Structure to design on (1140 residues):
């Protein structure tokens, strides 16, 4: 029986060594170790041995089975590896071909800039307010201290519709609508579409503005400068801050034009900033007491500032667009770049 | 407003360079919009001497000269005839650049070499028109001197963009005043020496003001024995520098003084005034009058007119009349200096579309106290230049003269509002430098009387602004406000708007923005019924062009125009959306409504030209898929797709209206071929429209989530033949009608027409997935359920299961 066992072991080792595929190795396993296998048959023969011999031979059989199993196991793993590596060798693609992309959509640059500005001001505690584009003269002009026949109305060429209505020339009427609805503190930002009868390379009859308004008990002109410095630094990634110049708007006093260092040339002077090194991007000022009077706020006990800016101008600066008309031509070759 | 550096120097003695002055003015709120240096970059244009001159051998009208520029003698060809050998002329040398970016190069003219150009005054930019070349007085300067230096024409011209409140700076002296206040320098007022004749003015002319409300002050002087002549060089030059044309010595003086002091003046030919009288009154309705520009104007009772004893002779504050203008034969002059009510002048000027330097000033408001001073200054200058005799005294109708009210002013309030910390004395000194009368009473309270020319300064806040302005905005420190916390979050509208925009962008669409106004023709292109409310649009009273004359009632035309325009540029695969307001007339007295709408359109190939997928065109179901995804994400339930009442601009067989419950929330479809043609589009376009407000209303903000079953599923397919006009959704509904909890999912996975399917039928394959939440379903159980479903389909819908 010992000889039989040796013979079986040697045959098995040779068969494993010469096997060339996983399938052959599986067959060897069945032939030797299966239910009707050769080693299994030998095991069944153990019963005919004497009580002394049985444990010794039993041990031997177990040792041979363990050896065959482990060798076979290793051979199967290695055969698998060979198969996989051969498959990997044969499977190659040209990864330089373009990928199958889901089509990328794009937001209009005006929407992008509005979203960005609103999110900067959200961080400063300003919420978004809205108002109608077809507006009453009272909200668009009178309540903002543009009396009828006032020359300041010439600053804004107006489209009129019937019934004393007009297309709002700025987002400032939202200030009035907000203050009539709510008492201080007020902190709003109002993006929107506005209209002026003017059309050329730098003027569009329709464009967009964002208005800001903050009214509280002790707001100063210096605070206006602080908020706008923070805003422009975040928007343009600058550290340069703003320059305020005296100006005039009927609904603010003191009023200011707000310039930033030219984002194109960094303040050295170029065509975009007309060699001044500065870019005008905002109008601003402290809310005029006359405006408070129209909304029944007590000008003696509160103060506040308002500001407004043109979205198209900021979009043009941010993206280096030279002609405003591109923004409303909706050419997909332009739009798909955003 | 245009001023020059040299002119300002006549009023104040400052050291600033032109660049520094420009910066100072801008920071005072007098924004320098442009700055032009006379003679800048023109150093190669020099004084030169014509040493020889002869006829050009090959051209009758040209001559050739030897010209000495101080260093060398050059050959120059010239076309002008108005000079001779020995004349001092202006030579633009090779390399010089004349106004208009005209570069002087060496050239050959009809075979003769020319090393430069002899210039006219026009070519130098000195005047608008000139005949022949400029011939200088002999020995004006050594030859070779740059001509602008030689002529004393080195100056800087500032164009200042004034805000409408600063009417006081519509004059050189006004601007000089602000500079003097800022730099704390003394202002030199222009000299005015009146030499009057013996005759009293009242004995020659008379003035009656009938409407003192519109004309609170009217002053006049009389000058006789004048000689109308061209103005002297200095006056012509000054007017040219500030962009005005010289007319004659009298009119030029009125213009100069207007620019110098800000007071518009008018000179009448007194011999042409009936009875030497002036009557200031409002016009009669329909009264006709011919202004200086030879235009007949029809007036109304709101217009103020200056009349003689019989008829209007000037449109007050706007323009003089042809019937009384100064002519070369004029000898006696009535000179007017007045104050007219701003709103009245503005009304007349606007209505007549007649905007003049005079009306510009009157409508912004001039200094009523400066009326007399300007009259005297102009009168003395006219006498000086025209040799006339000034009558003694002036007529001055000024019944309502009153002092300006004092303003109570709190210096600490200025500090508080501006956010600065100036000493009280410094603040009051700023006001004093601005020529305010400042008085402090015993209790320390301050009252301030602003100077009469600052009509914009009326309230404490106006004084505070002046403090901030003169002290300098650059001196204000940027601070962060101390504010109360306010609770807020975006409204539901705002949140859904942002989500929807993101969603459409993530569906691969590009957002477009069209003008809110459109052409009235566009609506017709949509084939809408005559009674369709979208035909009623809000009209602009003053559109720029007809294509932008009505407010849109639908976003569709703008989108279709965009598609057409893009296709013209061969962008054929388009996925576009627009999310903007439309404008609907309000009912009765109500404001118009401006609901937000959403439209999208797709056309062209589905995946673009790729290497790995077939190039298939998009169809109805791509558009529907986008709408389905939107409604799924916004969780709008109870959807149905209704084919009744299709929109007229859609293909009736390939469109539907979208309902959520009973609310119509949108529509989609293939564009009608005629509409496609109307917009010049060559390929099929699939559009959808959604009503944003209804989406917001119907979007469920709370979702209920079910935990998935842990038991295995089993799927069965049914293939069937159904009539063409039976919609697939009916099959799915019929399957689901067997209200079994075990039906997890029903999906149409194939629709087939063609071989093996009879005409008028389509083959549809449905896959039903069964699964229980409680146990593993037994084969027999599923078979029983499935058989029931097949039976339902066969019995209720008469389909043939294959």
């Amino acid at each position: 029986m010992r000889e039989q066992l040796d013979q079986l072991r040697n045959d098995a080792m040779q068969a494993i060594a010469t096997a060339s595929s996983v399938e052959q190795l599986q067959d060897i396993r069945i032939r030797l170790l299966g239910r009707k296998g050769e080693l299994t048959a030998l095991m069944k023969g153990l019963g005919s041995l004497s009580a002394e011999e049985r444990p010794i031979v039993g041990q031997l059989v177990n040792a041979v089975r363990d050896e065959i199993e482990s060798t076979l196991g290793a051979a199967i793993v290695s055969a698998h590896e060979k198969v996989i590596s051969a498959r990997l060798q044969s499977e190659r693609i040209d990864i330089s071909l373009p990928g199958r992309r889901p089509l990328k959509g794009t937001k209009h640059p005006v929407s992008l800039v509005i979203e960005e500005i609103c999110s900067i001001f959200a961080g400063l505690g300003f919420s978004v307010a809205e108002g109608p584009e077809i507006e009453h003269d009272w909200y668009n002009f009178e309540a903002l201290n543009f009396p009828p026949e006032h020359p300041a109305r010439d600053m804004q060429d107006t489209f009129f519709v019937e019934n004393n209505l007009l297309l709002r020339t700025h987002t400032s009427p939202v200030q009035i609508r907000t203050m009539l609805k709510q008492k201080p503190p007020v902190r709003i930002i109002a993006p929107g579409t506005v209209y002026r009868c003017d059309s050329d390379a730098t003027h569009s009859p329709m464009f967009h503005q964002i208005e800001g308004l903050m009214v509280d008990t002790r707001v100063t002109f210096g605070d206006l400068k602080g908020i706008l410095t923070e805003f422009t630094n975040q928007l343009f990634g600058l550290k340069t801050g703003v320059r305020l110049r005296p100006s005039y708007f009927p609904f603010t006093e003191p009023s200011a034009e707000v310039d930033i260092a030219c984002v194109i040339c960094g303040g050295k002077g170029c065509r975009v900033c007309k060699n001044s090194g500065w870019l005008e991007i905002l109008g601003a000022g402290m809310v005029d007491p006359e405006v408070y009077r129209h909304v029944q706020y007590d000008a003696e006990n509160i103060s506040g500032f308002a500001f407004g800016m043109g979205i198209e101008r900021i979009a043009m600066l941010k993206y280096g667009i030279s002609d405003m008309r591109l923004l409303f031509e909706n050419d997909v070759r332009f739009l798909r770049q955003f | 407003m245009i001023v020059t550096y040299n002119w300002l120097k006549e009023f104040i003695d400052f050291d600033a360079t032109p660049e520094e002055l420009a910066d100072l003015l801008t920071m005072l709120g007098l924004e320098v919009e442009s700055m032009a240096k006379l003679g800048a970059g023109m150093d190669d244009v020099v004084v030169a001497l014509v040493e020889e001159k002869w006829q050009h051998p090959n051209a009758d009208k040209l001559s050739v000269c030897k010209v000495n520029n101080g260093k060398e003698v050059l050959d120059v060809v010239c076309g002008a005839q108005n000079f001779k050998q020995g004349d001092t002329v202006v030579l633009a040398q090779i390399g010089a650049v004349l106004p208009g970016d005209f570069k002087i190069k060496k050239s050959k003219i009809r075979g003769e070499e020319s090393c430069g150009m002899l210039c006219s005054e026009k070519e130098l930019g000195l005047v608008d028109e000139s005949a022949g070349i400029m011939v200088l007085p002999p020995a004006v300067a050594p030859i070779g001197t740059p001509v602008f230096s030689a002529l004393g024409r080195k100056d800087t011209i500032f164009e200042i963009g004034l805000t409408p409140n600063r009417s006081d700076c519509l004059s050189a002296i006004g601007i000089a005043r602000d500079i003097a206040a800022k730099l704390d320098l003394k202002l030199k007022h222009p000299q005015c020496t009146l030499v009057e004749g013996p005759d009293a003015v009242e004995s020659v002319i008379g003035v009656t003001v009938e409407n003192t409300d519109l004309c609170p002050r009217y002053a006049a002087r009389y000058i006789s024995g004048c000689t109308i002549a061209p103005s002297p060089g200095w006056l012509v030059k000054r007017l040219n520098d500030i962009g005005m044309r010289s007319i004659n010595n009298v009119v030029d003086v009125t213009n100069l003084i207007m620019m110098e002091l800000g007071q518009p003046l008018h000179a009448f030919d007194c011999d042409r005034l009936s009875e030497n009288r002036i009557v200031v009154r409002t016009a009669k309705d329909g009264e006709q009058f011919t202004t200086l520009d030879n235009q007949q104007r029809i007036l109304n009772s709101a217009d103020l007119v200056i009349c003689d004893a019989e008829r209007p002779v000037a449109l007050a504050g706007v323009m003089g009349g042809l019937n009384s203008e100064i002519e070369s034969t004029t000898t006696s002059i009535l000179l007017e200096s007045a104050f007219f009510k701003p709103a009245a002048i503005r009304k007349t000027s606007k209505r007549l579309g007649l905007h003049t330097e005079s009306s510009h000033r009157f409508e912004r408001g001039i200094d009523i106290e400066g009326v007399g001073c300007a009259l005297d200054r102009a009168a003395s200058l006219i006498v000086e230049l025209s040799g006339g005799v000034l009558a003694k005294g002036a007529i001055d109708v000024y019944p309502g003269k009153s002092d300006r009210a004092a303003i109570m002013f709190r210096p600490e309030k200025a500090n508080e509002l501006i956010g600065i910390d100036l000493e009280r004395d410094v603040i009051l000194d700023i006001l004093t430098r601005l020529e305010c009368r400042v008085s402090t009473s015993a209790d320390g309270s301050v009252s301030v009387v602003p100077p009469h020319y600052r009509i914009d300064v009326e309230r404490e806040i106006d004084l505070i602004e002046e403090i901030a302005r003169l002290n300098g905005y650059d001196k204000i420190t940027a601070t962060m406000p101390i504010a109360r916390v306010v609770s807020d979050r975006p409204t539901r509208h705002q949140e859904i708007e942002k989500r929807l925009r993101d969603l459409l962008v993530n569906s691969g669409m590009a957002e477009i923005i069209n003008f809110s106004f459109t052409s009235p023709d566009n609506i017709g292109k949509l084939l809408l019924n005559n009674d369709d409310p979208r035909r009623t649009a809000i009209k602009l009273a003053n559109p720029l062009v007809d294509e932008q004359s009505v407010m849109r009632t639908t976003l569709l035309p703008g989108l279709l125009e965009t598609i057409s325009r893009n296709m013209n540029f061969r962008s054929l695969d388009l996925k576009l959306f627009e999310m903007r307001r439309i404008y609907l007339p309000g009912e009765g007295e109500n404001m118009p409504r401006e609901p937000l709408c959403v439209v999208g359109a797709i056309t062209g190939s589905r995946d673009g030209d790729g290497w790995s997928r077939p190039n298939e065109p998009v169809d109805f179901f791509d558009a529907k898929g986008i709408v389905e995804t939107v409604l799924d994400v916004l969780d709008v339930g109870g959807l149905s797709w209704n084919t009744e009442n299709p929109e007229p601009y859609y293909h009736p067989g390939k469109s539907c209206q979208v309902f959520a419950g009973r609310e119509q929330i949108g529509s989609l479809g293939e564009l009608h071929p005629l509409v496609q043609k109307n917009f010049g589009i060559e390929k099929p376009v699939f559009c959808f429209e959604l009503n944003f407000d209804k989406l917001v209303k119907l979007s469920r903000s709370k979702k209920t989530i079910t935990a998935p079953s842990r038991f295995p599923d089993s799927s069965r397919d049914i293939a069937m033949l159904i009539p063409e006009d039976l919609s697939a959704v009916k099959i799915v509904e019929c399957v689901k009608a067997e209200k079994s909890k075990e039906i997890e999912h029903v999906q149409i996975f194939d629709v087939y027409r063609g071989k093996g399917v009879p005409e008028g039928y389509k083959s549809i394959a449905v896959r039903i997935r069964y699964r229980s939440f409680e146990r593993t379903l037994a084969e027999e159980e599923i078979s029983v359920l499935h058989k029931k479903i097949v039976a339902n389909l066969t019995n209720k819908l008469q389909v043939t299961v294959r």
User: Anything to note?
Assistant: The beta strands of chain A are 127-128, 134-136, 160-161, 165-167, 186-195, 206-216, 242-249, 252-261, 278-287, 303-310. Chain A has a mean pLDDT of 90.
